Target: RXYLT1 C-terminal domain-containing protein
Amino acid sequence: METLIDRARHVASDGLPGPPRILEFGLMPLVTAAFPERTTFLDTRLRWADVRTRAPRSGSLPLRLLKLARRVAGIGRACLAQDYDIVVARCVGPVNSAGHAYPVHAALSLIGLAFRGLVLFAARGPRVRLAVLDVTDHLTIHPRDRAFLRRCDLFFKRELAANPWNTLETVLPRGACAGHARQDPACLALRAKLRPFALGIEATALKTPIPASARSYDLFYAGSAQGIAFRETVSGVLPRLAARGWRIHAPTHRLSPEAFAEAITRSRFCLSPGGVGWDCYRHYEVASLGSVPIFDTRPLTGIEPFLHGREGFYLDPQEDLERALDQLLRTDDAGVDRMTAAAQALVERVYTFDALARYVIAETLALGPSPRTASPPSEALVAAKAGHRQPSLN
Model:
């Protein structure tokens, strides 16, 4: 049976050979890297300085203005021509102007408004599908993205709550509470658009693991508490585990990227508790470098979650963490090697950037050819959308 990923690779739902034509907006290409021949990427940074080096771009002021005008005109022409079937764009999210003067806040707000208007213009009409990616740290959708949620076909949320109605709390229609929303067709239509997402990792980050018996440490953890209760508790437990005889590597100083990667590679297990949001680059980095991740409780819906005891372990903060970690660290080397291989396979299959891009396109194609309309969806349409494959909550 053809899978959604196969469909994204080979045949579009409208009969086009290969993946559909795609227009991607944003600061970093995701879908573009997976489908380079079929995707047009519009870099919306439009900055005076080089993004990586922050060095001012060369050329006189008139020349730089001319280059900027050409880039803006090119973006406008691409949106006007509408030579694509799917638009993929990042959400707007918070303004992130804390500490700046009000004029800066106002300017950033206007930039976000202009970006949202541009994306919605590019996705105008019933033919073009719109997929929005939300990679913010928040369980809820920011109110500035309410228009995206209403107009898009699918909304991919990185921190999608285990109960998706919690994610929708800030963007429900005026006067609607979560209890009422579950019976309201318009609210159900919003709920049917939600899909889980993740930060992901580069495919090149996956490294061949060394055998567990040859690793130098039993447990590695590097990180600051930053007022996060679980991290504070774990930091206090590690010295007691070392006193029990476990090889604990928990440096208090900041490691270089090379030393950090080496410490993960040489450790049987690595603690990877969530920060502001639960989903974290370190989860995928630990697995990619050949160690077994240990997480705190996962409050999210995942695309395909790490399973407890198969690709990693989860710690319940209500339990005795010292005792729980002591038990986990007793896993034999053969078990560690099996979990390492399973975790790497999961990351390669689901959480590389390429896999995430194909997942976005496959889920969008799975909607079928039904056009997006401005009128409220019928109950049949809502039921059909709600019936799509939903990710496991295990």
In short: The two ends are 25 Å apart (CA to CA).
